[in-house]
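Q: Could you fold this chain for me?
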Amino acid sequence: MSEQVSETEVFEATPEVVFGAFTAWGGHPASEMKDAEILDGAQHEAATVRYQMSAFGASIKYTVRYQTTPNTLVTFDLVESPMLKAMHGEFTLEPISDGMATKCNFLVSIEPSFPVPRMLKRRAAKTIVNNMLLSLHHYVHDTD
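A: Sure. Below is the predicted structure, expressed as structure tokens.
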């Protein structure tokens, strides 16, 4: 059974800036990220990306397919991973403060390919969301 985590965050940047930051595939990896390779597609568009990261003392490779609706929505689904059976995510952007800020909703669900206690699945999903937020904060503020 999959575990789902959601978070909401407000960025003091336009939806265009936040969308551009989020869809810079591999351009702003989290500290655990070792490598990101675009297999097809392009920056800021639908793309398939292979990642390699360190988590829980192991090196993990996985491939994700992103779909985008410019400045409003990014979804992603797992293509391949030896450690995950399924992963799905949604990142929605909503302009606030007359478009000068953006409310972002993150939703991530994961299902490992092996039995894992629910608490650890939730922790892994939360780690994914927190790494996305941290990386996005740095990237958005570096491009202001």
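A (continued): The chain has one domain: 3-143.
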